[in-house]
Amino acid sequence: MSPPLPCPKRARVATAPYGAGAPWASLPEDLVQLIGWRVLSGDLLDYVRFRAVCAHWSRSAARPGGRGLLDPRFHPRRWMMLPEGHGLYPGHPALGGHVRFLNLSTGALARLHLPLFHDHVILGCTDGLLLLLRHCDPGDTAVRLLHPFTGDVAELPPLSSLLPQMERYGDMTEYSKLSRLRGFLSGVGAAVTVGPAAAGAITVVLALESKHLVAHATTGDQRWTLSASRLPRVLGRTVSFHGNLYAVTPKFRQTNSVHIWQIDPPELDAAEGRTLLPPRIIAHCPLAAIPDAVHLVECGSELMVVGFNDSKRTDLAVYRVADLISGRVVPITNIGEHALFLGTRPLYASQNKGLPSVVANSITCRYRVTKNDALRGGRPFRITEQYHIGTGTWSPATDEGISCWNEPPASPYMLIHHIFTCCQHSYWNKGLIFHDKIKLDWSVKPNLWMYGLMD
Q: Which domain of life is it from (predicted)?
């Protein structure tokens, strides 16, 4: 019997101090840049953390500050300003200059110091950028575009520069002009386009929906330019998507079909400067033309249109605008992990561990009216419901109290209160949580020249 083979001793591995010889800090600069762009495609704050790993990565990856507006890759698209409730509007003294933002994809929260809100109010938001109106003096109507995470600001002309372009307002007093301008801002849709990096130009297109007007301005301009073409009567608010504005209107002499319009950014004309082409129809969709119940909404990276199949408001339908060039729309019954929230400014959120109360493949809205309820004085009332796209069924949004929303919700608020309020801009930009029994005004800001600004 042969002797057993000797058992070799296990090689002892020397342990180097942590970080010594680690390859991360020695990655080639172009590789760090490539990885950084991949990280940025997910979320801006992930990119900020990526740059903070080490000094080499910070030097190699582009700094967001100074590029936040000019490079669309740095736009914080999935971040929405969080309505605090209790009338704590952005700039309220109790907030100390801080504003919170919610990531609608991950549920992450960020608290940012934005002292600009001391003398500015929000007109709207697009791609996570905030369109602000300055109100230092009664006649001050300067507009600024703010990147809330980098602090980058683009200066735009005062909105009052629109008034001289309208002959009917030529003989009005300054007070009357400002009152008229206030009416223009009862509904504003905005889209932002960025020119070549070398030019550093930022163009903003405004849809003044209540007056069926479109205006545009570029950084460096002295005034806003009013388009000669009027905006058609829209069924829902205009939506920004990839630098263009989109709107839905009734189809002529048809109640069960709607048109989808596209408003392109202005083109550079050698003779006349930047000119805005007339809005154009790109598609039609078989939905009931019900005012304020047909919406365009971005979901994921696609543009969708949502509405009812008929005037009875029984079932909601979702169509994907599959091809913006050919105008092809495709009905869908599954939007995956996403949930749509419909209001004056529709949005989508994603179900995940950060947003556990978001119901995937659903639509939250308040379009249907209940029958007379004896407990509520025999009056019909609107309820906030969730429509489940896959099954075609309706259910209350969370519970009875939140489904009615005709009374102030109890504090602390539920997540759905905050998200649904983000859809209602007349509440969202005033620090209020949406419910029916409230008078919308700016009594909390007595120095604001526009009463009841922006819905």
A: Eukaryota
